[in-house]
Amino acid sequence: MNPKATLLLIKGEIKTSEVISCTPSEDAQSWAVTFASGKTYTYKSSSIELLDSPEQPDPNLYQISRNGKRLFHITAIYIFRGKQESFWHLCFQDGSERDYRQSELTVATSCLDRQKPAGTDVFAYLRQIAEISDLKHEETGETLLTRRFETIGFVGEDVALAKYLDPVSLQKEETSPGNSGYAPIFPSGAITASMRRSETPGTSDQRDPGRPGRGRRRQF
């Protein structure tokens, strides 16, 4: 079975990688499941859940952790929506693939989501401001903020810069009961705060042994 197109649950357990085929009976009361070992078993329909048509979000817009350990070098994400919970099939740069229950994962979403054009436009505006900044490298004359922007691939929703990229969320906070108000800082300060957060090293999951190396785009 193609794990990027289908996810098979047998009695609530993920079995996609172990199964060659899964075929329902004519009366749809049971399923014939053939495993990689060549053996075929029959299961009641109530024991089978076959999920397809997964969502395929941009992996650059997510930071995913499991058991407190960050999963690095994710090249593709496939999200299967089940009756009671969702499942994530992750593909890694080293060619390995693995399935996770969504409840196992801690997922942070970037404010640079392509589905939020308003946030993307604000980021482009801040990038233009950075290009005319007077903060330059003393020796090369390179504009420092421009170089910083080029390294940003992820902006978490919990950093200062997110307030500028998603002003709608800021308005919600301002109007929430008991909120004393939010005093925004100058954009360059938000950028600096975001950069500092990126300096905290993370650890990768054992299924993805690679570590971020030189030249890797910074993520926040």
Describe the fold and architecture.
The radius of gyration is 23 Å and the shape is elongated. The protein has helices at residues 117-131, 144-150, 162-165, 167-175, 187-198; strands at residues 6-10, 13-14, 19-24, 30-35, 40-44, 48-52, 62-66, 69-71, 74-81, 86-92, 97-101, 105-109, 152-154, 218-219. By secondary structure, it is α+β, with helices and mostly antiparallel strands. It folds into three domains: 6-52; 59-109, no CATH class; 117-200, no CATH class. The two termini are 36 Å apart. Helix 1 (117-131) runs antiparallel to helix 2. It has a three-stranded antiparallel sheet, with no helix packed on it.
Give the DSSP E fraction (strand runs of 2 or more residues).
25-35%
Q: Order of strands side by side in the largest beta sheet?
A: 2-1-6
Structural class given helices, strands, pairing? alpha+beta
The number of domains is: 3
Which percent range fits the helix content?
Answer: 10-25%
Give the count of helical stretches. 5
Major sheet size, sense and barrel closure: 3 strands, antiparallel
Residue-averaged pLDDT, rounded?
75
| End-to-end Cα distance | 36 Å
Low-confidence stretches: 185-220
- The coarse overall form would be elongated
Number of strands: 14
Which tags fit this structure?
elongated, alpha+beta, single chain
Concise overview:
The chain is an alpha+beta fold and 220 residues long. The chain has helices at residues 117-131, 144-150, 162-165, 167-175, 187-198; strands spanning 6-10, 13-14, 19-24, 30-35, 40-44, 48-52, 62-66, 69-71, 74-81, 86-92, 97-101, 105-109, 152-154, 218-219. The relative contact order is 0.13.
